[in-house]
Specification:
This protein is 32% helix and 18% strand. With 519 residues, it is α/β, with parallel strands linked by helices. Helix 14 links the parallel strand 18 and strand 19.
Length: 519
C-alpha cells in the first residue's frame, strides 16, 4: 500500500477523522485475523454479523487505524482510532481509486508507465488472470518510478474480483508496480463500470458471455451489457481484447473508442482483421492443449512460422483462456517468444480449476468445483470423456446456481450430456441438482450407473466404498455447493487420518471475504 496518512484517508473518503492525523497504515485488511502491525482494518456490516464487532480483535493483532461506519469503543470506553465514513465499502473503493491515480501520476512523471489490465467474462477470469500475470511477471525488475520503466506485476489473490477484492488487489501495488492486473466480477449491470472507474484500465479483456447468474442479471443480454462496460471505460489509446468466437463479445467492438484486438481459435480467413489465433489445436495424452500461436504483425524468429504453445492446463476449453492472455500480453508489448514460452511453462496457479491429483492407489481426481455454469460444465465433461478413454469415469456433479428460469432446462441438458458422453458413473449431489439426475435416468442411465446423494457426506461414503485403481473422477459444482471440499477429501489417500475433515474453517461472520465467485 502506498503511504496515506489518516488525515489523507479521511479527506479521500469524505470521512470524519477520529485519530491522530499522522497515523500511516502499512496495509489494508478486511479480516481481523489478517491484521498485522500497522494495518488499517476495514469494518463492514455483513448479512449475519457486523465487522465492527471485530475492530478490537484487529487492534489486538496490531492494527493502528480502522475504517468504520460508527465509532467503536474499547473496554475502557475510549473509541478506537478511526476514520468514520457513511459506507465503508464505497470508502475503500475511493482509497483504491486514489491509490491508482497517485501511482500512475508518479510513474508517468518519471517516464515509467503503469499499465492496468482489466479482465472480465462469465468463465475463465481467474485462469486468464493467472496466465497473464505469469507472462508479465517474467518481465519484472526491481525498478522504481524514479528512472526505471520496469517494475513489478501485481495480480489478484485467488478470485478477488468484487467491490472489496479489487481494492485489496490495488493496495498491494506501489510506486514500483509496472503492471496491475485486475479481475472483474459482477452480479448486475453497473458493477463492472464501478470497478473500471476505480482502476481506469488501459487494456480490457472480455472472455465470454455465458448464462451463469442469468437469474440475477435478468437474462443473458443484460450480462452482455454488463461485460461491455469494461470496453466502454477504455481510453482511446487503450486496447480492447475481445473473444471473436463469442458473437456477443465480438459485437462489443462497436462499444469502445479503444483499438480492438480480437482472438480466435478459428483458422484465418481472407478479409478477417488481424487477430491473435490458435491453429492446429490438439490435446496431448494428458489432456493438455497444444497449438500454433499467431500474433498480429509478429512471427517467430525465422520469419515464417508461428510460436508453438504446449500448455500444462487440462482441457481444450483452456485454449480460449490461453489466447486471451496472449492477446493482453501482446497489447502490453510483451514479445511473442516470451508469451509462448510462459504459456507453455505455466500450470494451474489457483485451486479447484481442473486441479489434477494422482492418488497412490491409481485413482485420478480432477477437481474443477470452484464454480460452475452450463458452458464450463459442458467443457469439463468433454474433458472427462476425452481423458477417460479406456478408464472408468465418474462425474460427481452439484448444482449450477443463479440460472433463474433456465435452471431446470440447463440441468436437464447436463444430465443428458453425461449419458451421451458415455461417462461410466454419475453421482448427483444435493436437491438443487435433482433435475440433472432425473434427466440422466430418463436418457437411459439407471441402476448403479446414476446415483443421487442428498449430501456431500453421503457421496463421500459411496465414493470411498466404490472407487478402484484406474478410475478418473471429476468434481464440478457452483462454489457454494462445496463439492471442491468433497474433491479434496477424496483426493487424500484412502483411510488417511485426515480424510474426515474436508471443509476449510470459515471466517468470522461479518468479516469480508471473496469466497463466493462473481460472474
Amino acid at each position: 500500500m502506498i503511504a496515506l496518512t489518516a488525515a489523507e484517508i479521511a479527506e479521500i473518503t469524505n470521512g470524519r477523522l477520529a485519530a491522530e492525523p499522522g497515523i500511516t497504515p502499512a496495509a489494508v485488511v478486511t479480516d481481523s485475523r489478517e491484521a498485522t502491525a500497522g494495518s488499517l482494518y476495514v469494518a463492514k456490516p455483513g448479512e449475519t454479523a457486523d465487522g465492527h464487532d471485530f475492530v478490537g480483535a484487529a487492534f489486538d493483532r496490531g492494527a493502528v487505524l480502522a475504517l468504520v461506519e460508527r465509532d467503536v469503543p474499547d473496554d475502557a470506553g475510549r473509541n478506537y482510532p478511526a476514520v468514520v465514513v457513511q459506507d465503508s465499502v464505497l470508502a475503500v473503493g475511493a482509497l483504491a481509486a486514489e491509490s491508482v491515480r497517485r501511482i500512475r501520476a508518479r510513474r508517468e512523471a518519471a517516464g515509467a508507465p503503469l499499465t492496468v489490465i482489466g479482465i472480465t467474462g462469465s468463465a475463465g477470469k481467474t485462469t486468464t488472470k493467472d496466465l497473464l500475470a505469469g507472462i508479465l511477471a517474467a518481465n519484472d525488475a526491481d525498478g522504481t518510478a524514479e528512472g526505471n520503466a520496469e517494475g513489478k506485476t501485481i495480480a489478484p489473490q485467488g478470485s478477488y474480483n468484487g467491490e472489496i477484492g479489487v481494492p485489496l488487489t490495488v493496495f498491494k501495488a506501489g510506486y514500483d508496480t509496472r503492471y496491475l492486473v485486475i479481475e472483474m466480477g459482477a452480479t448486475g449491470v453497473g458493477h463492472i463500470r464501478y470497478l473500471a472507474d476505480m482502476v481506469r484500465p488501459d487494456i480490457g479483456v472480455v472472455l465470454g458471455v455465458g448464462s451463469a447468474h442469468a437469474g440475477e442479471f435478468g437474462g443473458v443480454e443484460n450480462i452482455a451489457v454488463a461485460k461491455g462496460e469494461l470496453v466502454e471505460a477504455l481510453p482511446a489509446a487503450g486496447t480492447a481484447v475481445l473473444n471473436l468466437d463469442d458473437p456477443r463479445v465480438a459485437a462489443m467492438a462497436a462499444r469502445t473508442e479503444a483499438s480492438v484486438l480480437g482472438y480466435t481459435a478459428q483458422p484465418a480467413r481472407d478479409g478477417q482483421p488481424a487477430a491473435v489465433r490458435a491453429e492446429g489445436v490438439e490435446l496431448n495424452a494428458g489432456g493438455s492443449p497444444e497449438f500454433e500461436l499467431y500474433l498480429p504483425g509478429e512471427n517467430a524468429p525465422d520469419g515464417t512460422t508461428p510460436y508453438h504453445v504446449a500448455s500444462r492446463l487440462i482441457g481444450a476449453h483452456h485454449v480460449a483462456n490461453l489466447l486471451a492472455a496472449a492477446g493482453a500480453a501482446h497489447a502490453a508489448g510483451i514479445p511473442g517468444m516470451q508469451i509462448a514460452a510462459s504459456l507453455s511453462a505455466q500450470a494451474a496457479a489457483s485451486r479447484w480449476r481442473m486441479e489434477r491429483t494422482e492418488r497412490a492407489d491409481g485413482v485420478t481426481i480432477i477437481n474443477d468445483a470452484y464454480n460452475a455454469n452450463p458452458e464450463s460444465m459442458r467443457a469439463a465433461l468433454r474433458t472427462l470423456a476425452d481423458l477417460g478413454r479406456g478408464r472408468r469415469t465418474w462425474a460427481v456433479l452439484g448444482a449450477m446456481l443463479e440460472l433463474g428460469p433456465d435452471s431446470i432446462r440447463e440441468h436437464t441438458a447436463v444430465g443428458t450430456q453425461v449419458v451421451r458422453l458415455n461417462i461410466s458413473r454419475l453421482v448427483v449431489v444435493g436437491r438443487e441438482a435433482r433435475s440433472l439426475y432425473v434427466s440422466a435416468v430418463q436418457e437411459g442411465s439407471w441402476g448403479d450407473e446414476c446415483v443421487f446423494a442428498e449430501t456431500p457426506d453421503e457421496a463421500y461414503e459411496l465414493l470411498q466404498a466404490e472407487l478402484r485403481p484406474g478410475d478418473l473422477v471429476l468434481f464440478k459444482s457452483s462454489n457454494s455447493i462445496g463439492l471442491r471440499h468433497l474433491g479434496d477429501r477424496i483426493a487424500l489417500p484412502p483411510q488417511s487420518p485426515g480424510n474426515s475433515a474436508g471443509t476449510s474453517a470459515g471466517k468470522p461472520a461479518g468479516t469480508a471475504t471473496e469466497g463466493s465467485a462473481l460472474l
